[in-house]
Design goal:
- The complex is a heterodimer of chains A (about 120) and B (about 120).
- Chain A is built from 1 helix and 12 strands.
- Chain A is mainly beta and about 120 residues long.
- The longest helix of chain A has 4 residues.
- By secondary structure, chain B is mainly β.
- Chain B has no helices and 11 strands.
- In chain B, strands 2, 4, 5, 6, 9, 10 and 11 form a 7-stranded mixed β-sheet that branches. A 4-stranded antiparallel β-sheet of chain B has the order 1-3-8-7, with no helix packed on it.
- The chains are: A mainly beta (about 120), B mainly beta (about 120).
- Chains A and B meet through strand 5 and strand 6 of A and strand 4, strand 5, strand 9 and strand 10 of B.
Chain lengths: ~120, ~120
């Protein structure tokens, strides 16, 4: 079965410092991995995804994530945090070998990590 | 281009009442989804649709029904609301194009309280 874990409920970082939001996954095949961000009272917004290719993926708002197959991780990173980065971040995974490459995206979401950037 | 919109934004129901949540998208996407978001549990897929006139069950379908009579609309129905259905409901859509189908676009959510 596919699953995704975000081990930290909350991450606190000072503005200007680097940030990391952790994500680990479990799938039977090669995963499709995603990060979404949710600002207060808003829907989720897509940040970035890993499908294939380069393990380092760059996304919106200066975020990037590194796919590490041996550690089954897909941590979200940013070199210098901004107060406006404060939000709820969700990691998600899909196993295309289970659901098919042309089927609808049955994505499994993690429980979310609240990122708080202090000025 | 409004993207994905949801109606209503907030609703209070009494146990046993029924209601329908409306999701509309103007991006001509083939796939549409309904999720519920509960504290500490992330998003869970209720039902989804791969095209007009087709629907399928997701992870937590019990107590909900859906319909996709038009490509741009995806309706979520609660026939007899229960307090356990108190949640925030999100609709999403994605295109069918290979590779692009993986990116989902979300609506702003509907907050439902069942008393």
């Amino acid at each position: 079965a596919q699953s995704v874990a975000q081990p930290e409920d909350q991450v606190n970082v000072a503005e200007g410092n680097p940030l990391t939001v952790k994500c680990t996954y479990s799938v039977s095949g090669n995963p499709y991995l995603f990060w979404y961000v949710q600002y207060p009272n808003r829907g989720l917004q897509f940040l970035l995804k890993y499908i294939t290719g380069d393990n380092l993926v760059k996304g919106s708002y200066g975020f990037e994530a590194e796919f590490n197959k041996s550690q089954t991780s897909f941590h979200l990173k940013k070199p210098s945090a901004l107060v406006s980065d404060s939000a709820l971040y969700f990691c998600a995974v899909r196993d295309p070998t289970r659901w098919g490459y042309s089927s609808a995206s049955k994505i499994i979401f993690g429980s979310g990590t609240r990122l708080s950037i202090r000025p | 281009n409004a993207g994905v919109t949801q109606t209503p934004k907030f609703r209070v129901l009494k146990t046993g009442q029924s209601m329908t949540l409306l999701c509309a998208q103007d991006m001509n996407h083939e796939y549409m989804y309904w999720y519920r978001q509960d504290p500490g549990m992330g998003l869970r897929l209720i039902h989804y649709s791969v095209g007009e006139g087709t629907t399928a069950k997701g992870e937590v379908p019990d107590g909900y029904n859906v319909s996709r009579l038009k490509k741009q609309n995806f309706l979520l129905g609660l026939e007899s609301a229960a307090p356990s259905q108190t949640s925030v409901y999100f609709c999403a859509s994605s295109p069918r194009t290979s590779g692009q189908q993986e990116t989902q676009y979300f609506g702003p959510g509907t907050r439902l309280l069942v008393l």
